[in-house]
Amino acid sequence: MIDGFRNDLIDWFVQEQRDLPWRKDQDPYKVWVSEIMLQQTKVDTVIPYFNSFIEQFPNIESLANAAEDKVLKAWEGLGYYSRARNLQSAVREVHERYGGIVPDNAAEISTLKGVGPYTTGAILSIAYGVPEPAVDGNVMRVLSRVLHIREDIAKPKTRKLFEAVIRDMISQDNPSFFNQGLMELGAIVCTPTSPSCMLCPVQEHCRAFHEGVQRELPIKSKKKSAKQVSLVAGIFKNEQGQYLISRRPSEGLLANLWVFPNFIKMDELGTSKQQLESLMKTEYGLEVEMGDYLCDIRHVFTHLVWDINVYVGTFHGAPSADREDVVLVTEEEMLEYAFPVSHQNMWKEYKKFM
Ligand code: SF4
Predict the structure, then answer these.
(1) CA torsion angle for 33, 36, 39, 44 (degrees, to 10)?
(2) How confident is the model at residue 269, as a pLDDT?
(3) Do the beta carbons of residue 310 and residue 349 sit within 8 Å?
(4) How far apart are CA 24 and CA 96, in angstroms?
(5) I need a surface site. Which of 81, 166, 189, 289 has the fewest CB within 10 A?
(6) Cα separations (Å) of 146 from 132, 143, 165, 221?
(7) Any idea what the Cα angle at residue 132 is, between residues 115 and 162, rounded to 5°?
(8) Centre of ligand 1 from the C-alpha of residue 303, in Å
């Protein structure tokens, strides 16, 4: 069964693989960038980001030497920004410690920042032809069905089980196409809710299909529901046409990205407009004149939901001198700063109405 499965999977991948920019060559740096971008993000979203990122930072050296702000700007809108920071920090390590050559073995590559077991397997198999498993949620779904495995894929130890299974199955001759075939099958045929079994190249080998249980698999326990956080934010402009923006802390969620002033709502039932006005005074030392309510923005992270009431307003004077994380920028200058999606959306709403 394993030989047949392996051959049918690879033959199908050779014929049917999508034409994707990171498949044009096996440059380990490009494979690495693409795999980091593809974590938690759809292929169609990643394609333009990948192309422009590689245009700006075509190799290890250019990314290692780039300013972090430029890298965050290139990542703007892609989300999960720690991926970009970790990638750059790991690329710097490769530049300094390995002479700019991405290591070709698990022992070294897996110590790089942001390179977990999946990325290790993907880079080693695709760029270097090393038979190393690359197990992500897609791959666990496909193999849960093909092999009728009923372990809970939400549990970390289940990944180890699948890695062991793949070590037995992986093609020694073409581990790259075997791993990519599994990923591709999960992406376009063996999809989460409606697997296209009638078109599937490995249907003959699939136990779940033969038992009619493919829709019950994989087994995945539910995550805890996301924490809700209510915020109030403002887009404030002065007479010179400058806007006030601030940099988020260098650690934690959306680290180092730029945002409009925003605060956690102290009182769910109180008026957020008054709260914003008084917090602008205490936090930034600024007198503001509050304008209209602009919109509500909701942003869903993996474990967190932000609900933001957004207002517009004007301010006079300059923020407190000790606030090095605050700048005043014109609309044109703002283009140089990287904002998270929620704040980009605020700006889009603002431009619609102001
Ligand atoms: Fe997935 Fe159906 Fe193919 Fe089995 S036969 S691998 S369930 S698409």
Answers:
(1) -20
(2) 52
(3) yes
(4) 27
(5) 289
(6) 20, 5, 12, 20
(7) 90
(8) 30
- C-beta separation of 298 from 306 below 8 A: yes
- Is 208 a pocket residue for ligand 1 (Cβ < 6 Å)? yes
142 lines ligand 1 (CB under 6 A): yes
The CA angle 264-266-270, to the nearest 5 degrees, is 120
Q: What tokens appear for 327 in the block? A: 């700048």
Q: Dihedral sign, CA of 199, 35, 339, 226?
A: positive
With a cut of 50, list the residues of the chain below it in pLDDT: none
Q: Rounded distance, CA 128 to CA 122, Å?
A: 10
Identify the bridge partners of residue 219 per DSSP, sorted by sequence position: 152
Report which DSSP code applies to 248. Answer: P
Q: Which two tokens stand for residue 138?
A: 């897609």
Q: What stretches of the chain show up as alpha helix (H) in DSSP?
A: 2-16, 28-38, 43-56, 60-65, 68-75, 82-97, 106-109, 117-128, 137-146, 156-169, 175-188, 207-211, 272-284, 331-334, 341-353
d(CA 68, CA 57): 12
Say whether 312 sits in a helix, a strand or coil: strand
Neighbours of 25 (CB within 10 A): 9
To test the ligand 1 pocket, which listed residue (146, 204, 215) has its Cβ within 8 A of the most ligand atoms?
A: 146
pTM of the model: 0.83
Q: How many helices (H) and strands (E) does the chain have?
A: 15, 7
Q: Ligand 1 pocket, 197 CB below 6 A?
A: yes
Q: Amino acid letter at 153?
A: I
**pLDDT value of position 274:** 86
